[in-house]
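Cross-check.
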Amino acid sequence: MARKRSEKARPKLTAIEMAQQQREISISEFFTKNRHLLGFDNPRRALLTTVKEAVDNSLDACEEAGILPEVAVRIEQTDGEDRFRVRVRDNGPGIVKAQIPRIFGKLLYGSKFHRLKMSRGQQGIGISAAGMYGHLTTGKPVTITSKTGPKQPAHHYQVIINTKDNEPKILREDIAEWDGEQGTEVEIELEGTFQRGLWSVDEYLEQTATANPHVTLRYKAPDGKERVFERATKVLPQEPREIKPHPYGIELGTLIKMLHETRSRTLQTCLQNDFCRVSRRVALEICQKAGVYENARPKRIAQQEADRLLTAIRGTKLMKPPMDCISPIGKELMEAGMRQQFEADFYSSVTRSPAVYRGIPFLIEAGIAYGGKVKESGPAKLMRFANRVPLLYNTGACAITHAVTRLNWRQYSVEQSNGSLPTGPLLVFVHMASPWVPFTSESKEAIAPYPEIEKEIVLAVQECTRGLRRFLSRKRRRAEEERKRDYIQKYIPHIGEALQEILEFSDAERDKVIGKLTDLLEKSRKD
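Predicted model, tokenized:
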């Protein structure tokens, strides 16, 4: 009875009252409550993500401007044990004054999202999200100083995000002193945890130096320890070129949107101008297969006609998209980076030919280091990279991990338990380069397991492991030969004494025979 009374007493809302409760949600408000999606789910990861986003932005800016990057990272402990000030400074081209507040104080603002061109950043979220997290946890704004040239002033800003409308709020704006010709420095104070070892800032910077051998990184930790990662080459990576979308990578909604927004006057020229790998002949072939007039106005194409166009596109043989939108590390530089950071007995690296997923080009590179000072026990050290950026978290959800564990390492003379990473003194390095990496979430820590991607990773690692198998086979053979020599050397004196008894040698002759046998053994060891 009490339950029935409570149900009767419950107030009812009308549709009008419910409608009055609806309101627009700002992207900043959404990520404020869901910051774990961006990599700020715990203090340790938050500190790493902040450094990562700032360093990635610096490297992108320097490379695009044709400048050999020099990046300085400094982390200082401030008030209390859980507060840190992160300062990242580069020698890049700087940022023009009008763009500074929006880059650091507005989510989903950037120049890379709409370009099909390889870069570290893609979404325009990272560094502004780090600033938002810092303000949420400490109340402090993001501080930015940037200078665009030797004769230009250094503009200094303090900015926070107005989460209600996702717009920057400038707290301070003035001119600052700058002792270099140009560059940018960003400073964020945040709540975090500093630790060394796995999933740390130290590991991120070490792996960044390995995958970017053209970079000089200077790092000062909160405990005062300093480390410099010197560049292994003075050659900048090849500048990737922006490409147009490939027809195989679009869906119906995207095609309709492109037809409505095109500047081309006819369907044929739209297909030629707005897509890559579509010539005049191919455009005419697509129109004929779809039964659509090639001189039709793109904006007047109906949904049914667009659907037929998409079917015709998928049924037409097209060249793969251009691959100059990708800038690989390269086999030699990848090996140089591994040698710079890891002392091993064996190195092998490979850069695969480009491939395609969903009409988007990508390229897989892999490297292996074995023995030496690489850790001897436990699972192999797996280093995952996407567009030269280390991926430290969400290992189990990544296509790279799936591919490496799927490989049968035992056939290459490396120990492995079923469904797990190989074990032993082994380092496995895998890099995916693409103008659009399919991350599993906004935190950009794992690559989605597309079959085309996993297949290329397996093939790349297999190429490296074939060399490793030959190396391990020679190593075992040498070890067996050495064991036999040691066994022979142990009995050479006994052989000399036996010959002395049989042939009645003198002691001098016996020693001479022992010496000759020993010399023969040493000669075989050198051979």
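Residues 28-229 form a domain with the Heat Shock Protein 90 fold (CATH 3.30.565.10). The longest helix spans residues 451-503. Passed to J.P. for a second look.
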